[in-house]
């Protein structure tokens, strides 16, 4: 039976984990990114649809392609981070459903008959997968900096010119610079955010 994680693991994943704006000059290897994806892919998605697509920008040249789409406050974050991930969703994910959800043979046709449902499924579940990537990164000893603050249309034109994928948000990855952190922002209490029925 699964057992609760110990306090140190919970701290690393949640309680002391932070969103980093600055990064140490320490690389993140392709092997680490493959291990990161290997954990992320096991997070649950609706009908195992797995619509998220991950573009890992490691080289300076790749990051510079992203810079024109960024708000000014995010440029240094992307340039300094060892890796920036473009989290996107595949608008044609139903094409893979026969492989991913084989016990419902007509599921691709069901999505084709209801484009708003397909889009909602892609967006919602890719967002979930982005959250899984954040937790997987922390579990592997990496720090993260998820962010909005960019022009999605420009990102899509640059990185997904065929229109198949659409960007959602960005995640910088690496080893954060602790001295750059601000005090942690407040969080809502259970009583203010939750309802027991």
Which percent band covers the strand fraction? 5-15%
Q: Flag low-confidence runs.
A: none
Give the neighbour order of strands across the main sheet.
Answer: 1-2-4-3
What is the total domain count?
1
CATH class: Alpha Beta
Query: Which homologous superfamily in CATH is the superfamily?
Result: NADH Oxidase
Largest sheet data: 4 strands, antiparallel
Q: Structural class from helices and strands?
A: alpha+beta
What general outline do the C-alpha atoms trace? globular
Q: Tally of extended strands?
A: 4
Rg computed from alpha carbons, rounded to a whole number of angstroms = 18 Å
H/I helix tally: 9
CATH topology category name = NADH Oxidase
- Summarize the helix and strand pattern as letters: HHEHHEHHHEHEH
The CATH architecture can be named as 3-Layer(aba) Sandwich
End-to-end CA span: 28 Å
Quick check: average pLDDT?
A: 97
Determine the fraction of residues in helical runs and give it as a percent range.
40-55%
Keywords: Flavoprotein, FMN, NAD, NADP, Oxidoreductase
Enzyme class: oxidoreductase
GO molecular function: oxidoreductase activity
Family: Belongs to the nitroreductase family. HadB/RutE subfamily.
